[in-house]
Amino acid sequence: MRLHRLDVTAFGPFGGSQSVDFDALSAAGLFLLHGPTGAGKTSVLDAVCYALYGAVPGARQSGQGLTLRSDHADPATRTEVRLELTVAGRRLEITRQPPWERPKKRGAGTTLDKAQTWLREYDAPSGAWKDLSRSHQEIGEEVTQLLGMSREQFCQVVLLPQGDFARFLRADAGARGQLLGRLFDTQRFADVEKRLAERRRTTEAQVRDGDSALLADAHRMQQEAGEAMELPDLDPGEPGLAAAVLAAAAVARSTARERLTVAHCRLTAAESAQFAADRALAGARELARLQARFAQARQRAVRLEERAGDHRTAQARMERARKAEAVAPALELREAAEAGHRAAAAAETRARALLPESLAGAGAAGLASAARRAAEELGGLESARRAERRLADVVDERDRLDRQERDDEDVRREAGSWLADWDATRAGLQSRVDSAQEAATRAEQLAVQREPARRRLEAARLRDELGRDADEARRMALAAAERAVEARTHWLDLKEQRLNGIAAELAAELTEGEPCAVCGATEHPAPAEKFAGHVDREAEERALAALQRAEAERARDERRLGTVREALAAATAEAGDLPTAQLASQADELEREYGHARRAGSALHAAHEELRLAEQERERRLAERQQAEVRAAARLTRRDGLDAEQASLEAELAQARGSAASVSARAAELERQVALLTDAADTARAAEDAARHLKDTDARLADAAYRAGFDTPQAAAAALLDDTAHRELQRRLDEWQSEEAAARAVLAEADTAAAAQQPPADLDAAERTAALAAQRLRDAASARDRAARCCAELDRLSARATAGVRRLTPLREEYERVARLAGLTAGTSADNERRMRLESYVLAARLEQVAAAATVRLRRMSSGRYTLVHSDDRTGRGRSGLGLHVVDAWTGRERDTATLSGGETFFASLALALGLADVVTDEAGGVRLDTLFIDEGFGSLDDQTLDEVLDVLDSLRERDRSVGIVSHVPDLRRRIHAQLEVVKGRSGSALRLRGVQGLLR
């Protein structure tokens, strides 16, 4: 990387525009950047770092870039840094503008412009600059990739900071490790340590969880096994827990199986005892049953003997009933014949009562002849009846035609009246449609205007509120600005007073024999003295702190004012100049008009529908009127035909009905006469037949009673039994016979008779014995079941525990492996003898490379006396790995770097910084660094050492490098001809180029 040109505007202490031609400075190889304290020497380096990375080094970085702006700059001038450089064979130009709080172009107050960045590349063939990007992120990634270094690495390698490497040289291992970690990006090794530690904790937790589950199963097994199982006195995660639990489970299972075998034996004995008791109980119950059966049979036999006379009477009554059953059919026929004769005589009497007196005494044959004559006359009236029905149909049709004619006349009249008003009706409906359409269109137009009116009203209300806020913010901003001006004036006055007396302040820190921090002399013949009213550093810092607080308050109030003004301008731009009340009135009027138009427009669909229905009604009425006219023409012809047919039928019917009111009346009279005569003839014949049948049944009944052994038919009828009595008598006979047979059968049984000869059975004793045996069986079965459940549960829990141990074995092995690795990388393992962490081990290797590279230059600077070496010895009880010692060739002893003098510490630190730069450069991929800066420290060297150091720095030119030394030591101005001087003043600092051919603007 080679710098060509740097342009700064309103940056840091530089109020105007300043430029540095690094090509002119680099031509000399070694150049000096000097100037008074506080002039801005380090700000030049800050500008280079800001151009590359968008941030300044370390502690000087704050905020979002607002503090980079020069307090001396004109308010209208924007801060800008432009750097032109060559890196990786590409010539680039980077321009950065930090955020800028500038005055508003319109109105009072300020506004904040965002940061801007440009990246351009020089195209040699075309001789022009080509734009590459304007994105902060893309440019940052491109620069970091080309340089191969982060901002922290760049600040340590290219901008060798004042005092940092002296502290690094004397620092302890922890502080040294932090710096090396940032430079060599060893975070990935720390991440490995962290990842291994996390993995160890995770696997340890998993192993503990698995052991906890195993112990939980063991506790459940102990609950099942009782005293047969003893749990191991181990906690989850301790070695041997799984084996101890499985061994205890095996012992518990064996004991449980022994208990199960004993329970099986006891159950078998209880089952045998219960079987014998049940068999004895069954025998006693059978003996008691047979004895009770025999006693009951004897009692039934005694009762049957007592009722033997009643049984013989019932048998005789049943015998007479069986004989009477032979006469029963004849009795039934006699009763039926008598009932039929009575019914036929009654029917004949009723039928003759309806006949005329002339036929009341006629026989059946005479009645039948009269019925035939009436039927013949009825048949002659059938044609006249058809003519009568047709006449009725003709009259009905004639009436229907008249009704239709009246209905059609009403339809024509109503249709004519409605159609006469059609033009006016249609015009009215069309007018309603047009009005609703206009209202709907107006509503759509007003709807478009509602939202802008509402936003404008809201903006007007916000404008009024922001106007009040802007007045208050303006008052506060003016007050803060006045306080900031007063604080700045006070600080500048104190600073100027302190600068006038700075010599006395430096003289107060001089020690006889120690080198001066300014000139390096060890003798101080006439140190300056403080005068009355001297301003010390604390007073200046208090004034500066007060200024910073005032500036912060001013910036905060101005930002607030700018924010309020921007919001006010936006609200005013949207609301306009009209008062809020007027805008509210306009919005309300617009809402009322919109509501009215919307309500009127909502009737559009109804109006269209009403017009469509009216047109359909017109078409319907026209069709009805036309159809009525067609039907009227057809009715005229039909009415003439019906009139002629009606006259012919009336003449025919007048002849046929005679004296009756109508043919139908005459026919009904004849039909009734035929029916009465026919019914009377039938009932007369039925009565004659019933009398003959009754006489025959009387003869047959007398003959049947004589053959059955009865004297008269009445005696046979008395001996008959009805069904209920017959069944009851048969039931009593059957019951007596069955009971007698059953008693004889029981008394004849051999086992029953034998049981009756034995003593009475003792059921209570047998039941008590059986109950005791059953209880003992249940107890034995319960004990056997408990033992079986215990075995099954122990088998299940043991199997689960064994499976859990099997699953946990790989995890336990992984935990042991990860724990060993985590302890090794964390430096806590006994295998790690030096207790060195993994990251420290990597950094120790880098530090060893840095020490070797630094020794090459340190030996030249110290005339071959000193050599830097890396030490990994432990200090006390701490860890080892990042120790740094110096070997003194004069004494041959190795000692701590803290024993070096001030000058020795400086050139050792410088050598270490240059060596670190070489190693970091190689680590970054070999990016060539053609420009380096060294900030301060040369005042602590004597003349000979200074020459040697400058020779070493001058030797860097052999590799076509240029080195810039930042110092205010006067002797360096004489030794280094190429100089960049920083001159400070009340209006800001300026840059001057001396001893080279170049341009500075």
UniProtKB/TrEMBL annotation:
GO terms for biological process: double-strand break repair. InterPro entries: P-loop_NTPase, Rad50/SbcC_AAA. It holds the Pfam family SbcC_Walker_B. GO terms for molecular function: ATP hydrolysis activity. Keywords: Coiled coil. Signal peptide: none annotated. It comes from the Bacteria. Residues 384-446, 540-687 form a coiled coil. Residues 6-190 form the Rad50/SbcC-type AAA domain. PANTHER family: ABC TRANSPORTER ABCH.3. Belongs to the SMC family. SbcC subfamily. Heterodimer of SbcC and SbcD. This is Nuclease SbcCD subunit C. The lineage of its organism: Bacteria, Bacillati, Actinomycetota, Actinomycetes, Kitasatosporales.
